[in-house]
Automatic annotation (TrEMBL):
One of its GO terms (cellular component) is plasma membrane. InterPro entries: AAA+_ATPase (IPR003593), ABC2_TM (IPR013525), ABC_transporter-like_ATP-bd (IPR003439), ABCG_dom (IPR043926), P-loop_NTPase (IPR027417), PDR_assoc (IPR013581). Its main location: membrane. This is ABC transporter domain-containing protein. It comes from Gossypium klotzschianum. The chain crosses the membrane at residues 342-363, 375-394, 426-448, 460-479, 485-508, 569-595. Residues 1-246 form the ABC transporter domain.
């Protein structure tokens, strides 16, 4: 088991992605990564290895247990079934009777396709997630588990799978040291017993956690400084002249010893002047260190592929069969529909309200069939109904985009193919469509006064069902293509505008110019509207002739807007809608399969900074460059500061006898803003929320779940206070309550500012709150973000 250490931006995540076969294909790469001598094109690295990201992406409406159970169901049991079969065969040969409890556990762990898996319960226990197993994961809009618990869910999502090679990226962020130790200790036992592989990146591991690892990889500036047994890492740096102090954690020492600002304090050769040792020098020295020589000797001999066990590398793309994957995705989609039932109830209420308004607007007692203009009013009623039914499908836009980040993560981890995700999103929404359209049609049809023939009632109902399904498929396709809410809303609104304009009602077929007529023929709304118009105006209520005409009134009304008059056009319209439904959902699936999320912003090193790092002087005698991006009026001040720094450094002796160097203070002119210190006291603060329904179903009778139980304390000016506690103890909840950030729940107790009751309007202007969630504008630089915040 290997610990990957390195300062921020040293390349830890990039290395783990490269080892797991998940590097962006747009990046230029050289070299090869092999597993047991096999290159990555000979097996499926995404299933052989599990990469655990440092970003927590989960569906907020699912509980912790449901999240892990879905992951286990999709990843399958791997080689656990084959291991059990081989174990049973050997036990029979040796006449060994297995322990009943172990036998039951292994059989349960080797059975795939289960909604509840014994491995899921085991991982929940190992990760300390039993206490919140039936709590929603939560997101920005839904209250859920704490940040540390969410980090453990991210880890558990991959541990429930059968992967033997684990690449874990900063899994300890937000966790207390005891929980981190428990997780790493469990991983160590798994790796050693099952002969697995684990490379774990930790930022600041505690000494007891550090001692659990076998090997250490230290990376800095994209180069490996040390790779080898944990026992020899200190001796390597001592050979370079650096010693770890007795009361200093080894992991912290390794993080800092390659840093320019921290390296000097560890210099141990008092008889020699200190000079900064670069990452390249460390890497070159390691090649001649005995651990580096041994590593090079081992790598010189390639691994024999014949020694690799067939079950070690996975060649199947997915963990279970296609039918099992589809069942798992259907089960999850149905669960999410139940959890989001408010959305569908709101849509029902919205449609009912609009139907009532429409009934009063197009009331049959006020409408006649004695002229073409009166027929146009009926046309307007049909067009308005079609618009309402289509607009009701626009909610698919936001709901699809909200789930895309989790989908992309699980797709790239080969949990399931895109079609297994797209089919349930379409099929399970069909019953909802039948109910929505039924509300509209059965409320408005006879009140407006459409043709009373029941056959034509159900024909209109069927055509509107297809129109709603077509619109839902279109909006899902737009969401999967745009992948961003702003872009999707823009494209979606433009698509509706084009559909309306070219549907044949806003502009009749005669009025559309010849170079735009192709848009009329490919407009799905045209087919739906044609079917509805033909269905209504070919009815018996429109069979009479208008004054001065020999044809039926319905025919004249259809001709006035250049609609087709033949009855067959109802079925042509229905067929066109069915074709567009299938086409849009196929496009939706294709977009999910081949499109990736928009790339995140990458840090760019300017040429000036890069050349400065390469030519920077070594040690105290080096030059310090101060850059200023302000206007030319500040150049004098900048150059004066630089000269002062140069004089201060040059006056120092070149031989350093102490491990620390005096700090050069550069005083700048400014003013002192008036500031009045305040003390914050909170007495017997109790914070509670309504008891979750899942916990009530387990037999809990209380109405409220208490999260803060009579907490008291004070924050004084001039005193730095550390708020400590294990993950999930309530640290964030307490700070949210004191800062006035809680918008729900019940708060009892007293909070005072310098003895006065806290008024949130005033307190918000004099307080700052740094949350653990990093929410920033992705398209501005760090400097621009800070500058904008300072302006505010």
């Amino acid at each position: 088991m290997t610990l990957l250490l390195g300062p921020p931006s040293s390349g830890k995540t990039t290395l783990l992605l490269a080892l797991a076969g998940k590097l962006d294909t747009a990046l230029k790469c050289s070299g090869t990564v092999t597993y047991n001598g096999h290159e990555m094109n000979e097996f499926v690295p995404q299933r052989t290895a599990a990469y655990i990201s440092q970003h927590d992406l989960h569906i907020g409406e699912m509980t912790v247990r449901e999240t892990l159970a879905f992951s286990a169901r999709c990843q399958g049991v791997g080689d656990r079934y084959d291991m059990l079969a081989e174990l049973s065969r050997r036990e029979k040969q040796a006449n060994i009777k297995p322990d009943p409890d172990i036998d039951v556990f292994m059989k349960a762990a080797a059975t795939e396709g289960q909604e509840a898996n014994v491995i899921t319960d085991y991982i929940l226990k190992v990760l300390g997630l039993e206490i919140c197993a039936d709590t929603m994961v939560g997101d920005e809009m839904l209250r859920g588990i704490s940040g540390g618990q969410k980090k453990r869910v991210t880890t558990g999502e991959m541990l429930v799978g059968p992967a033997r090679a684990l690449f874990m990226d900063e899994i300890s962020t937000g966790l207390d040291s005891s929980t981190t130790f428990q997780i790493v200790n469990s991983l160590k036992q798994t790796v050693h017993i099952l002969n697995g592989t684990a490379v774990i990146s930790l930022l600041q591991p505690a000494p007891e956690t550090y001692d659990l690892f076998d090997d250490i990889i230290l990376i800095s500036d994209g180069r490996i400084v040390y790779q080898g047994p944990r026992e020899h890492v200190l001796s390597f740096f001592e050979s370079m002249g650096f010693r770890c102090p007795e009361r200093k954690g080894i992991a912290d020492f390794l993080q800092e010893v390659t840093s320019r600002k921290d390296q000097m304090q560890y210099w141990a050769r008092r008889d020699q002047p200190y000079r900064f040792v670069t990452t390249d020098e460390f890497a070159e020295a390691f090649q001649s260190f005995h651990v580096g020589l041994q590593l090079e000797d081992e790598l010189r001999t390639p691994f024999e592929k014949t020694k690799s066990h067939p079950a070690a590398l996975t060649t199947k793309k997915y963990g279970v069969g296609k039918w099992e994957l589809l069942k798992a995705c259907i089960s999850r989609e149905f669960l999410l529909m139940k959890r989001n039932s408010f959305v569908y109830i709101f849509k029902f209420i919205q449609l009912t309200f609009m139907a009532i308004v429409t009934m009063t607007l197009f009331l049959r007692t006020e409408m006649n069939r004695d002229s073409i203009s009166e027929g146009g009013i009926y046309m307007g009623a049909i067009f308005f109904g079609l618009i309402m039914v289509m607009f009701n499908g626009m909610s698919e836009l936001s709901m699809t985009i909200a789930k895309l980040p989790v989908f992309y993560k699980q797709r790239d981890l080969l949990f399931f193919p895109a079609w297994a995700y797209a089919l349930p999103s379409w099929i399970l929404k069909i019953p909802i469509t039948f109910v929505e359209v039924a509300l509209w049609v059965f409320l408005t049809y006879y009140v407006i006064g459409f043709d009373p023939n029941v056959q034509r009632l159900f024909r209109q109902y069927f055509a509107l069902v297809l129109a709603n399904q077509m619109a839902s498929g279109l909006f899902r396709f737009i969401a999967a293509t745009a992948r961003n809410m702003i872009v999707a809303n823009t494209v979606g609104s433009f698509a509706l505008l084009v559909l309306f304009a070219l549907s044949g009602f806003v502009l009749s077929r005669d009025d559309i110019k010849s170079w735009w007529i192709w848009g009329y023929w490919i407009s799905p709304m045209m087919y739906g509207q044609t079917a509805l118009m033909v269905n209504e105006f070919r009815g018996n209520q429109w069979s009479h002739s208008l004054p001065g005409s020999t044809e039926a009134a319905g025919i004249d009304v259809l001709k006035s807007r250049d609609f087709f008059q033949e009855p067959k056009w109802y079925w042509i319209g229905v067929g066109g809608l069915i074709g567009f439904i299938i086409l849009f959902n196929i496009f939706f699936t294709v977009a999910l399969t081949y499109l990736n999320p928009f790339g995140s912003s990458r840090a760019v090193i300017s040429e000036q900074t890069e050349s400065h790092e390469q030519t920077d002087g070594i040690g105290v005698g080096g030059s310090i460059q101060l850059t200023n991006n302000e206007s030319s009026s500040n150049n004098v001040t900048s150059s004066a500061i630089q000269e002062e720094v140069q004089r201060s450094i040059s006056s120092k002796s070149s031989s350093v006898t102490e491990a620390t160097i005096g700090t050069i203070s550069i005083k700048k002119k400014g003013m002192v803003l008036p500031f009045e210190p305040h003390s914050i006291t909170f007495d017997n603060v109790v914070y509670s929320v309504d008891m979750p329904q899942e916990m009530k179903e387990q037999g809990i009778t209380e109405d409220r779940l208490v999260l803060l139980k009579g907490v008291s304390g004070a924050f004084r000016p001039g005193v730095l206070t550390a708020l400590m506690g294990v993950s999930g103890a309530g640290k964030t909840t307490l700070m949210d309550v004191v800062a006035g950030r809680k918008t729900g729940g019940y708060i009892d107790g007293n909070i005072t500012i310098s003895g006065f009751p806290k008024k949130q309007e005033t307190f918000a202007r004099v307080s700052g709150y740094c949350e653990q969630n990093d929410i920033h504008s992705p398209h501005v630089t760090v400097y621009e973000s800070l500058l904008y915040s300072a302006w505010l």
